[in-house]
């Protein structure tokens, strides 16, 4: 026979959760979870700490993405940036749109190229440098 459970206080989430956890730095994980409302009370009065719910809420509140789903809302998957490129057969280096989007570059942005022994440095040219 399953024990009936009722929820403790309303669990914290978002920034309120992050701030509360920082305030409770001296407590154990279980005590932090309980203080943040991640527990249920059994019919016999005993408590059950909901550690997975607590940890998942904390991960979400911190903005960590573990399941690989994009947060940009377009619902499309795609390739992840590897931060590596290869010289193409025609001798060109192609920097993909993943990198230019991450750097918030727009068509027409210009760069000064500096060559090192084994590196290339790009310095963006701004309007006030013209």
Automatic annotation (TrEMBL):
UniProt GO molecular function: DNA-binding transcription repressor activity; transcription cis-regulatory region binding
Protein name per UniProt: SpoVT-AbrB domain-containing protein
GO cellular component: protein-DNA complex
Ranges of residues in domain SpoVT-AbrB: 82-127
Keywords: DNA-binding
Tree of life domain: Bacteria
Organism this protein belongs to: Acaryochloris marina (strain MBIC 11017)
